[in-house]
Write a structure and sequence with these properties.
The complex is a heterodimer of chains A (362) and B (357). By secondary structure, chain A is mainly alpha-helical. Chain A has a domain of 224 residues. Helix content of chain A is 70%, strand content 3%. Chain A contains 15 helices and two strands. In chain A, helix 1 crosses helix 2. Chain A is globular, with a radius of gyration of 23 Å. The model of chain A has no long low-confidence stretch (mean pLDDT 89). Helix content of chain B is 41%, strand content 20%. Chain B is built from eleven helices and 16 strands. In chain B, helix 2 links the parallel strand 1 and strand 2. The chains are: A mainly alpha (362), B alpha/beta (357). At the A-B interface, helix 3, helix 11 and helix 13 of A face strand 3 and helix 3 of B.
Chain lengths: 362, 357
């Protein structure tokens, strides 16, 4: 006996829409069982995980802070993945964007001007794009694998940042601790509202999502991305260049990651330090896929993932479960989304009898 | 300024009484923020053991919620703010990297008390606390000089920050007080917690000929390597005797529990003040693990030094001390002040390494 996945002749439109909700519901049910097994009241636990963080204004700000970089990076990645280019190194582009964006406030702190902040953001995005151009260059010129190259560049970026803040960019008045000087006020992204810390990063994310959605839906470039992603050969017949698409998609996603990096450093941290990201660049990959590689979907999934982080903390404090529960929840969610999606496109068939006999015949 | 201090003290006292009034209905929350997991076997575990001790001692009056694996950066600010909002009266943030986040949240919540470990920024409601690890390391140095046949020890260091440099110097000074020609080799692992890298560093040092190891990183890997190669070593942060029953001479053990109990009691009494506390062996914030695997005379010497440091008779950084390049630093009888120690970025004479700058 064996189990096979068979492609369905047609997939249900209704279930394509319902599937993320179904996945969410299954996650909640299994989460409740998990809490029950841990000896916690499941109702209270789920409440503190998914509802409590949404009840207070300051917490909504925190949600926006957390979701901002996730969405911004995921939007870029979704274009990249649609075009069949696999940029796994957004974390590195995020880091390099943070570094190049910080050049002005760290090296010329005496320059006070309203131009500082826009230039920082621009330089951050440019830094991220250029760093993503490395795997693009290697792929188009030497046919290297962009997954490996972009991933390994993450470590180079992180070690470079580490070296900078321990070496040349270290705050001379900081007791030798690995930190740059604090940014001057005009180099800091201001809070949007008085009620909390949320800054412009979430606006950049939403704007990027809408622009990319528009591009994918109504512009030739979007069509080019889709066609080349589905079939490079078909794209060539239409006169599209797969090479140029590698450059475009890698650098676009790199620019968004770099912008997210400098926004995070300027808005949330206020200086450079050895670790500036809790893995946004990697989590954004999950966000992109949960959003089905659709920029607008990335907004929703970005907020959901951000919520699991905040909820994990709230649950740790109010019911005393381990922080590992957050990871388990994220894992459950991803698992159910992917399996629901799979079951829309495929059906499970159990084949009785010896599979080996069949293989022998064929 | 004086008026301000009086006003602050009065506010603190008033708050204290409010807190002790409320405890009849609800327990006071004393909260902890950890950078690692509470079972990391090193730094965070030592803090969590302290928290458990506190819970045991004052459990009828307080609760001790905690957050583990909080990344240093913007997440720390949110985590600490969440604690402040959830009704924590006193919050211990237990990693250097939480410093700026703790400062920011402390500004927003003037009625909540904060204590930040190993940092240097304080506020009226933000105290700092640290342990004089160097006192223990001086004793380790003395033992090393007695036990080493070659007169050479290896030091696995984490990051070239003042805390670590100070520890290296204290070890060398202790060793030189026994053997003036004692040499100390240093390897920078650039990590606090990485068994693989730490083991590699230990092997590299042993291959260079040292016959005693000490570490300022958190895993037991160097101890295990030392045990395999049949040389002696010292434990760090926790008693690591289980990893090297025939190898560990002693360990400097972080025992934060006494400190946490002291400060929580002060909070409950309403006598909590923002202070820059730097406690040592005599306060019980640092403890020497049992002296093992050594002859009785070495053990007696170590115990004597420990007693002298506790009584204040001996300060490890007492002149004459020269810097590494031979230029004088402290005159005979002169003691280093805390400010210099906390910003230390040079080696003393006898350290066989170039300090990364």
């Amino acid at each position: 006996m064996r189990i096979e996945l068979q492609r369905r002749p047609a997939s249900s439109g209704l279930f394509s829409l319902v599937s993320p909700l179904l996945a969410l519901a299954l996650t909640l049910i299994f989460g409740a069982i998990m809490f029950q097994m841990l000896g916690k009241d499941p109702g209270h636990a789920l409440y503190s995980f998914f509802v409590e963080p949404l009840l207070e204004v300051w917490s909504l700000h925190e949600l926006a802070i957390k979701a901002g970089p996730l969405i911004l990076i995921a939007v870029g990645l979704s274009v990249c993945y649609r075009s069949n280019n696999w940029n796994i190194g957004a974390e590195g582009q995020f880091t390099i964007g943070a570094i190049t964006g910080s050049i002005l406030p760290i090296l010329v702190p005496q320059w006070h001007s309203v131009m500082v902040l826009p230039l920082m953001l621009l330089m951050g995005a440019a830094g991220g794009a250029l760093f993503a151009a490395i795997p693009a260059l290697l792929k188009t010129r030497f046919n290297t694998n962009e997954i490996l190259v972009s991933l390994m560049l993450v470590y180079i970026a992180q070690l470079f940042l580490d070296w900078l803040v321990r070496g040349p960019w270290r705050d001379p008045k900081g007791f030798n601790f690995p930190q740059s000087i604090s940014f001057a006020p005009e180099a800091v992204l201001p809070p949007l509202l008085d009620s909390g810390r949320a800054h412009a990063s979430i606006l950049f994310a939403l704007l990027a999502a809408v622009l990319v959605w528009f591009m994918m839906r109504f512009m030739l470039k979007g069509f080019e991305v889709t066609v080349l992603g589905r079939s490079e050969r078909a794209g060539r017949f239409a006169g599209f260049s797969a090479r140029r698409m590698v450059w475009f998609s890698m650098m676009l996603s790199g620019a968004f990651a770099g912008l997210a990096g400098i926004s995070e450093v300027s808005g949330s941290i206020g200086h450079l330090q050895p670790s500036i990201s809790p893995g946004y660049g990697f989590t954004a990959i999950i966000v992109a896929f949960l959003g089905r590689l659709n920029p607008v979907g990335a907004i929703a999934s970005g907020f959901v993932l951000a919520l699991t982080y905040l909820g994990g903390e709230a649950a740790q404090l109010s019911i005393g479960v381990s922080d590992k529960v957050t990871r388990v929840f994220q894992g459950l969610l991803l698992f159910f989304v992917l399996s629901c999606d799979t079951l829309i496109l495929y059906r499970v068939r159990i084949i009785f009898g010896s599979g080996r006999a069949r293989e022998a015949k064929s | 300024m004086k008026k301000l201090i009086i006003a602050l003290a009065a506010t603190a006292a008033a708050l204290g009484s409010v807190v002790s009034g409320a405890q009849a209905q609800e327990k006071t929350k004393v909260c902890f923020v950890y950078v690692g997991t509470k079972t990391d076997g090193g730094w965070t575990q030592a803090h969590d053991l302290g928290r458990q001790e506190l819970q045991k001692a004052l459990g009828d009056k307080i609760e001790t919620p905690y957050l583990e694996s909080v990344p240093e950066g913007p997440d720390a600010e949110r985590a600490i703010e969440r604690m402040a909002r959830s009704g924590c009266a006193l919050i211990f943030s237990t990693s250097f990297g939480f410093m700026d986040a703790t400062v920011k949240v402390a500004q927003k919540f003037p009625n909540v008390k904060f204590e930040h470990a190993t940092g240097y920024k304080a506020a009226p409601n933000l105290a700092t606390y640290n342990s004089r690890f160097y006192e223990g390391r001086y004793i380790l140095g003395q033992i090393a000089a007695k036990m080493s046949k070659k007169g050479e020890a290896g030091y696995i260091a984490s990051f070239p920050i003042p805390e670590v440099v100070m520890g290296i110097n204290a070890f060398e000074l202790g060793a030189k007080s026994i053997n003036p020609n004692f040499k100390l080799k240093v390897v920078w692992a650039n990590t606090w917690f990485d068994p693989g890298k730490e083991a590699d560093a230990a092997k590299a040092l042993i291959d260079q000929g040292v016959d005693i190891l000490t570490q300022h990183t958190d895993t037991t890997a160097p101890m295990q390597v030392a045990a395999e190669r049949g040389i002696y070593a010292f434990g760090q942060a926790s008693d690591m005797i289980a990893a090297g029953p025939k190898t560990q001479l002693t360990a400097i053990v972080d025992t934060w529990g006494a400190y946490y109990i002291k400060r929580t009691k002060a909070l409950l009494d309403g006598t909590w003040k923002s202070e820059q506390i730097w406690d040592g062996l005599k306060d019980g914030i640092l403890t020497m693990a049992p002296y093992t695997n050594m002859p009785d005379d070495v053990k007696a010497m170590a115990e004597e030094t420990e007693a002298k440091i506790k009584s204040g008779e001996l300060h490890p950084f007492t002149g004459p001390i020269n810097k590494q390049d031979g230029t004088p630093w402290l005159k005979a009888g002169e003691k280093a002040d805390d400010g210099t120690l906390l910003g230390m970025n040079f080696y003393v004479e006898g350290v066989d390494d170039k300090l990364p700058q």
